[in-house]
Amino acid sequence: MTSFPLYAETYRIGNRVYRRNEYKGSTRSNVAETGDTPDMYADEFEDDGPCAIEATPAIDPKLPDEVEPSSEPARKTCDSDPRITYEGGKYMAEIYVPSAFHGKLVGMRGSMRREIEESTECRLTIPRKGQKGNVEIKSFVGLENVQRCLDRLELLISEARRSAPLTHFIAIPCATPEIVQAFEMFKEAVIANERIPEETRNPALFIAPLKLHITVCVLWLFDEEEEKKAADIIAGCREEIIAALPKIPFEAEVNGVETFEDDPSNVKVIYGGIHSPVLQNVCDLLRKKLVKAGMSPSKEKSVSTLDSSVQMHITLMKSGYVDPEKPKAFDAKVILEEYKDYHFGTFTFDKICVCTMHTVDSKTGFYEQCYETSLC
């Protein structure tokens, strides 16, 4: 059934859906079992394939008076797949792979690289350690081979990203003097309240006051290239965000104490509530853009992050601050009862930051940032 075009197997990478056709290896007599030949990647010229000319012939810089077209064949872009170019009988493509994943792509003693090259009959050129650049794919066998190699690499990167630890997050700073003061008073009141269990009054459970913020979404950013891409996405939303604000500067309130868990006697996070439709729309917009770019998880507790809204909150207490490896739940029943209407104050929404997880800026007391954009 799967060999019939209408019933071809499909799979998704990011926001793209691919059709997986049954692959039949090349039967060309000059291709060895490994899918490679001594002159397979030489620049020999062959008849044009199903491609459209993209580049113009190169000009010899040594002839300022006489301009003659280069004898090198022009590189062309394939009509059926613009990711792939064609030149001199050779199909080529490039794909960006974060340097953190180069080792996974190579595999133990080159095993993964060889397996991909042999199964797709392509040659991979991977930047050496410490070097930057795209992974290059080349094949003399056919367009389909390069397509399959690209799909394999995209799938490998996607799986590696999902299994890797999160590295950054988008934050809206909220540590205004008013909110910091209210938080310090809340902290002192909780620690002094003898109705609250002793383990819940541990000062280490509380966030550093200068780190108070809204987490819009968490991110995987593995190098400067990805940090720049995330920054470009946020910068591209700036005008839309400003236009959505009823006034500038825009202020929002932090009211009440809440938790994510159903059982108030067994919680791991206590947060301050934020209820602002305007800010909600901004957070949802940013997260969706970054999820679609593959930089933020597409699911959160089995719920799609594209189809749901950001749970806006300002973390006040967290068991992970005490023991990041094995956070232990604490009893917050009294806190949630006595401080459910606690007013922390207002903050001005005037900037969006990309922060590095588990860091602190010694100058500001906030997280280290790789990007910040002002909305004023």
UniProtKB/TrEMBL annotation:
GO terms for molecular function: RNA binding. Keywords: RNA-binding. GO terms for cellular component: nucleus. InterPro entries: AKAP7-like_phosphoesterase (IPR019510), ASCC1 (IPR009210), Cyclic_Pdiesterase (IPR009097), KH_dom (IPR004087), KH_dom_type_1 (IPR004088), KH_dom_type_1_sf (IPR036612). GO terms for biological process: DNA alkylation repair; regulation of DNA-templated transcription. Residues 28-47, 56-81 are annotated as: Disordered. The keyword RNA-binding applies. Gene3D superfamilies: Cyclic phosphodiesterase (3.90.1140.10), K Homology domain, type 1 (3.30.1370.10). Residues 89-158 form the K Homology domain. The keyword RNA-binding applies. Pfam families: AKAP7_NLS, KH_1. This is K Homology domain-containing protein.
